[in-house]
Amino acid sequence: MTGDELCKTGINEMDKILGGGIPQGSSVLLAGSSGSGKTILCSEFIFRGASEHDEKGVYICLTEPKAKMIKNLKNFGFYDQKAVDDGDVYFLDMEVAEKLREMLLLNPSTLVRTIVDVVKDRGAKRVVIDSVTAVCNSLDDKAEIRDFIFRLGIELSPLDCTALLISEIPPREYVFSVFGVEEFISDGIVHLSDFERKGNIIRTLQVVKMRGIEHSMNKQVMQITKGGIKLMPLLDKNIPV
Ligand SMILES: Nc1ncnc2c1ncn2[C@@H]1O[C@H](COP(=O)(O)OP(=O)(O)OP(=O)(O)O)[C@@H](O)[C@H]1O
Ligand SMILES: [Mg+2]
Q1: Which pLDDT belongs to residue 78?
Q2: CA-wise closest residue to 112 among 14, 203, 185
Q3: Cα-flanking dihedrals φ and ψ of residue 112, to 5°?
Q4: What atom in ligand 1 is closest to the CA of residue 63?
Q5: Atom of ligand 1 nearest to the CA of 40
Q6: Within a 10 A sphere around the Cβ of 130, how many other Cβ atoms?
Q7: Contact at 8 Å (CB) between 26 and 163?
Q8: Which residues does the chain have with pLDDT short of 70?
Q9: What is the pLDDT of residues 37-73, one digit of tens each?
Q10: What is the pLDDT of residue 93?
């Protein structure tokens, strides 16, 4: 591992504000409230990785059944059935996820081992945990949560596997996690939020932290389109009316 390679998210404007991408092997918390676009953004990250950067991805879904999620994702231009059929994009279904959850109840380090084994088996360079909050809820102990995220980061980094950890937060609060420890162990934080303007809800995205790189901290207007996630600077002219 060279340590200075960047993992391009494939979401063009996001790579621009990151100065190229996320340092490879980082574990990044993606925090947002319900409906803020976490699943869509992370799915685009996984699909673009496969189609544009020849990087395999694993999506661990602990909050929504795989079939339902795929049905929704098929509405988007980045969805690629061939990548799924070829195994370049691999969704871990709820059944497997349920087993992971059972394992978690027994031992958090077994869960880390299982996730890392899946990543190694598939040769994945990208992994999403949707959501890390679901894992943390099962642990329900700050020391164990810290240990889980820390160990996961330690194991994924030498594999050059970049992780997006979805964090479920309340709407319009400047917090990044439920337990308040997740953000300190993660290498980066991307915060999704929104505000109201003339009766419209405007989505925003901000990179709050990204260890190892100089990045923009400017808030971006975020739009969910058929083509995927679009970002633009938070200027009056860019706010849809
Ligand atoms: N085809 C589409 N075009 C535009 N916007 C869409 C489309 N499909 C869904 N959306 C928007 O995306 C939102 C859902 O995004 P997503 O599933 O990524 O949210 P989430 O943050 O993962 O939510 P949760 O925490 O509940 O899982 C919907 O509420 C809707 O506003
Ligand atoms: Mg979701």
Answers
A1: 98
A2: 185
A3: -60, -45
A4: 27
A5: 18
A6: 25
A7: yes
A8: 1-3, 94, 97, 100-101, 103-106
A9: 999 999 999 999 999 999 999 999 988 888 999 999 9
A10: 78
**Ligand 1: which residues within 6 Å by Cβ?**
32, 34-40, 63, 75, 168, 224, 226
Contacts for 96 with CB less than 8 Å, ≥ 6 apart: none
pLDDT at residue 2, rounded to an integer: 43
Q: What is the DSSP string of 156-197?
A: HGGGT-EEEEEEE--TT-S---SSS-HHHHSSEEEEEEEEEE
Q: Distance between CA 136 and CA 176 in Å, rounded?
A: 13
What are the b/e assignments for 151-171, b being 16+ CB within 10 Å?
Answer: bbbebbbebbbbbbbbbbbee
Distance in Å, CA 35 to ligand 1 centroid: 5
Given a contact cutoff of 8 angstroms between Cβ atoms, the answer to whether 11 and 231 are in contact is: yes
Enter the tokens of residue 154. Answer: 């330690």
For 74, the token pair is: 């098929």
* pTM of the predicted model over 0.85: yes
Q: Peptide bond preceding 167: is omega within 30 degrees of 0, i.e. cis? A: no
User: Dihedrals φ, ψ of 119, to 5°?
Assistant: -60, -45
pLDDT for residue 3: 45
Q: Whose CA is nearest to atom 17 of ligand 1?
A: 39
Instruction: In whole angstroms, give the CA distance from residue 48 to residue 1.
Output: 22
Pairwise CA distance, residues 203 & 201, whole Å: 6
The closest residue, in CA terms, to atom 6 on ligand 1 is 224
User: Tokens 């964090």 — which residue?
Assistant: 167
- What pLDDT does residue 1 have? 39
Which domains does the chain possess?
A: 6-238 (3.40.50.300)
